[in-house]
Amino acid sequence: MKLVRIILPLVLLFSIQALANPKGKLFIIGGGTRSAELMQSLVNTAELRASDYIIVLPMATSEPEESFALLSKQIAPYSKAKISSFNFTKEQADSHNTWIDSVRNARLIYVTGGDQNKFMDVVRGTKLYDVLHEAFQAGATIAGTSAGAAIMSEVMITGDQKDNTSAIQTISKDNIITSTGMGFLKNAIIDQHFIYRSRYNRLISVMLDYPSHLLLGIDEGTAIVVKGKDVSVVGDSQVVAMSKPTNIKINKNNKVSFSDAKISLYTAGEYFKL
Residue 240: its pLDDT value, please? Predict the structure, then answer.
């Protein structure tokens, strides 16, 4: 009996550790143009074998066929792996077992750009959501661009704000609307098209709402590759990392202040830790 009491907690501990250390990788693209170098890096990251295949999930976009055709064309010079697109509906995400099983066993799963809320409305709370996590745990590379980047975080920036007149012009707490994303990244939050669209105000505002998280602004044509706690940067531009604001205050005019936040800027070939 004592042996059973010892073994069961150990089994639970090892299960928790396995979930905390997935075998898979994330390839998170900030949107924009995907260079040949970026596509080569994506294929290399996925370590595609002859028997492997790629699944594209285009639920975020209003142009699924066009998005799939472009991605297929861009990947073709670097991999002969079969590539398929499954444009799930909410019902199919719980019931289309053939598609769901294909996602489970894919080596590379790619989420297109578009509207991250639209993607999560289809996937959240379904078998497909669970299977995506199973694939990630088992060693699949999960990739995404733009909206497909935003969904990677547990805390997902929706693209909306409470005060529609001030999101670009001001930095404020409790204004940027977030939701629940896929949660491949637990303590980091992704913003995309970052430098090109000057989204500093938005990301600083989110940092003030989630001061214990790492905020990552990924520019267009650029990606981060995440394996465990290790992050590398590839592509044409840069990645901004913000964290650890202290002494956050809101004054009587509802203006916010803070001190001593950590801000880093990374470019291709550089590494950092989550």
Answer: 98
Q: How far apart are CA 200 and CA 21, in angstroms?
A: 31
Asked, for residue 255, whether it belongs to a domain, the answer is yes
Q: What residues make up the domain containing 197?
A: 24-273
pTM for this entry: 0.91
Query: pLDDT value at position 252?
Result: 79
Q: Is residue 19 part of a domain?
A: no
DSSP code of residue 185: B
Number of compact structural domains in the chain:
1
Residue 190 region, left (φ>0) first, then alpha (ψ -120 to 50), else beta? Answer: beta
Residue 223 lies in a domain: yes
Q: Give me the half-sphere count of Cα atoms (radius 13 Å) on the Cβ side of residue 16.
A: 6
Q: Mean pLDDT in the chain?
A: 92
Give every residue of the chain whose pLDDT is below 70, as ranges. Answer: 1-20, 165-168
53 by Cβ neighbours in 10 Å (0-12 / 13-18 / 19+) ranks as middle
The pLDDT of residue 9 is 56
Please give the full DSSP string across 127-162, using - where no structure is assigned.
HHHHHHHHHHHHTPEEEEETHHHHTTBSEEEEEEES
Q: Is residue 254 part of a domain?
A: yes
Q: Which residue has the tokens 């609307």?
A: 177
Q: How many CB atoms lie within 10 A of CB 260?
A: 8
Q: How many residues does the chain have?
A: 274
CATH of the domain at 131: 3.40.50.880
- According to DSSP, the residues that pair with 168 across neighbouring strands are none
**Cβ neighbours of residue 70 closer than 8 Å, sequence gap 6 or more:** none
